[in-house]
Amino acid sequence: MFAFRAVVIARKGITLRSLATTAASSSSSKAFSIPIIDFSKFQRAQSSAEKQETADEIVTAFKTSGFIYLSNHGIPRETVQNAFQKSKEFFALPSEIKDTLAWEDPRSNRGYVKIGRERVTQSKDPNEIAKLREKAPDYKESHEIGRDWDSEWKNMWPNESDAPEFKRTMLNFFQTAHGLHVDVMRSIALGLNLGESFFDDKINEQCHNLRLLSYPPIKSSLLEEDGTARAGAHSDYGTLTLLFQDQVGGLQVQNPHTKEYIAATPVPGTIVVNVGDLLARWSNDVLRSTLHRVVAPAGKKINDTEKETPQRQSIAFFCNPNFSAEVACLPNCGSPAKYPPVNTGDYIVGRLAVTYT
């Protein structure tokens, strides 16, 4: 059902071989792929034509699959590894410490979320989500971090003695990810013929969410029950998501033509970037917000009747427009508008409010 093609990337004279997924569906002739795009060609472009070429590649991919792998993105490997290490150390803390940092309010969207508290889904019905959460909770824990200078909502940090360098590391990573987000949004603006700086003053308030994620080891049988996954099928809420994932795997993306799920196989050195619901809405669905989920990879046998899935880590940077911004149909994205204008803050908070218990 799934075909794989080898992709070769030239990086500083080194050939990087990886696997990019291409789904060949038995029920549709339309193939589905997540391309690897070398972002250094945009960031270091020597001409406007070179920059436009990469912008067009990105927008074309976002129109079709809604997902890309971004290579040569400018974030050093050591920076990502350090963020993963500090995240791992945080989740290894005793529950009594993490629980003092518990997530409290969708308007804040900050703090620790224990296993089973969140149930991601496409539903917006609180009662339906509550039933899903009771039947098949998401098997993950997370810690949510926002801009640290917010006058109303404060981040929830562990004591420095409990998690040395955690706060400094995550604040630096937040800024690094925001910088990349700005560059990717500039490429999208160029690809939509809006002018490179179109989004700059609409995303400069950094109303983003840095989410650290830990998927603990779990008996495989618990993830084989009806409707159960490490994270259920959903689309993201904002403009873009920058996903840093380890090599365990488990992310799957839905082919919108066949409704089949394909594996977004981890590609070393890349970031998975996908379109969120607000950017799809902003673009009048020219750019695609695609369903995805996290499932368990093959488990390791622990006895004659049971297997255990391995621990998985990821870091997601959920990019949002300024919460004061109005999201309405962009120029060059068709007419009539499919959606009425919406305030970013109202939209994001409304989606979060029904996701958590």
Automatic annotation (TrEMBL):
All copies of domain Fe2OG dioxygenase, residue ranges: 203-321
A molecular function (GO) term: oxidoreductase activity
Domain of life: Eukaryota
Keywords: Iron, Metal-binding, Oxidoreductase
Pfam families: 2OG-FeII_Oxy, DIOX_N
Family, per entry: Belongs to the iron/ascorbate-dependent oxidoreductase family.
Protein name in UniProt: Clavaminate synthase-like protein
Annotated source species: Coprinellus micaceus
